[in-house]
Amino acid sequence: MTELRIEGLTKSYGPPAPPVLDGLDLTVPGGALAAVLGPSGCGKTTLLRIIAGFLHADAGSVTVGERVMTGPGVHLPPERRRIGIVPQEGALFPHLSVARNVAFGLTGLDRTTRRRRAEEMLELVGLTGYGERMPHELSGGQQQRIALARALAPRPALVLLDEPFNALDSALRAGVRADVRAALRLSGATAVLVTHDQQEALSTADLVAVVRDGRVAQCDTPQQVYRRPADPWIAGFVGDAVLLPATALGGGTADTALGTIPLATDTDTDTDTVNGTGTVLLRPEQLELTEPTSGAVGGTVTEVRFYGHDAMVTVAVDGLADPVDLRTAGPVAVQPGERTGIRVRGEAVLHS
Ligand SMILES: Nc1ncnc2c1ncn2[C@@H]1O[C@H](COP(=O)(O)OP(=O)(O)OP(=O)(O)O)[C@@H](O)[C@H]1O
């Protein structure tokens, strides 16, 4: 299994434009799938194109295993990098059968070996028996799985996936993601998935690298990025966030408009010694509606949005300038205009 190491990667599309990548560091352990997640225009495609060798970096390095692909005075051409690419919309060759598409990159092998390898790859992506079909006879999801089979066939050290599920409708997307994830895991390839879709990054990847201002602002497991975001911007970018002004009380708690809340202790912040004010982060699913009894934190429901599997309730909390959102499973027992109590479950993250 091959590690990907990116160090100090810098790229500008020429002055006076500011750098798109500005000293970006990222390490992806061998066999892991890392999602590069960031807002539109943050440089995700630029990063992918430099890793693939389609674009020169201004500075920094890209190393796959022991091989420096990009570095000072080094720029291996794309065809010598052993990197497989799954583009946005499959981009299968329309005039070649599925089997020939999959075998396309298998140069220097005899016909029987090529055919066997293509069959293996079709089995890996769950499309055994589809080899004689033409690409237009496949669904969008099947085309993406064939694109992955084609990328994996030459046993690349690294696979790059460029927003590969964008063209699929949402009903199909979750299933294709899971299939692609499973095939990648079986193949053992290290992979980088570029996406601007938070759900996709959190549900598919082993590691999520959030890119902002040309650098990786946080790289961690999906759970850590969601539950312990490094700052309020990341908190809001990877999910719905409730951000509250807070005063640290010492002893691992903070005082907020929603009461005294215990602080997570598995963060870099030493919650015993934090003093002064900051912002605490909670997720909407950590807030619960309660009876509006005296003594409880109270507020007025301003909006209820029902999504089927859950609902989001917006509450104007007494004494708090901005309303808060809370997520509730099951039937929603409140209406806009009603009074409610609010209780916090679990721990919050404090940012100074
Ligand atoms: N060939 C180019 N010449 C000049 N500027 C470019 C070029 N390609 C990209 N840019 C600029 O670099 C920045 C980053 O672009 P890039 O495509 O890498 O972002 P992205 O994160 O992939 O965006 P999206 O999610 O919208 O695809 C953008 O401001 C873009 O306008």
How does this structure look, described?
- It holds the Pfam family TOBE_2.
- The protein is an alpha+beta fold and 352 residues long.
- The protein folds into 2 domains: 4-227, P-loop containing nucleotide triphosphate hydrolases (Rossmann fold, 3-Layer(aba) Sandwich), CATH 3.40.50; 240-351, Nucleic acid-binding proteins (OB fold (Dihydrolipoamide Acetyltransferase, E2P)), CATH 2.40.50.
- Helices cover 22% and strands 34% of the residues.
- The chain has 8 helices and 21 strands.
- It has helices spanning 44-52, 98-102, 111-124, 140-152, 170-187, 198-204, 222-227, 232-238, and strands at 4-11, 21-28, 33-37, 59-64, 67-71, 74-75, 83-86, 158-162, 190-195, 207-212, 215-220, 242-250, 253-256, 259-262, 277-282, 287-290, 297-306, 310-317, 324-329, 339-344, 349-351.
- A 6-stranded mixed beta sheet has the order 7-8-9-3-10-11, sandwiched between helices. Strands 2-1-4-5-6 form a 5-stranded antiparallel beta sheet, covered by helices on one side. A 5-stranded antiparallel beta sheet has the order 14-13-12-15-21, with helices on one face.
- Helix 3 crosses helix 4 (140-152) and helix 4 packs parallel to helix 5.
- The longest helix has 18 residues, at 170-187.
- The structure holds adenosine-5'-triphosphate.
- The site of adenosine-5'-triphosphate has 11 residues, from helix 1.
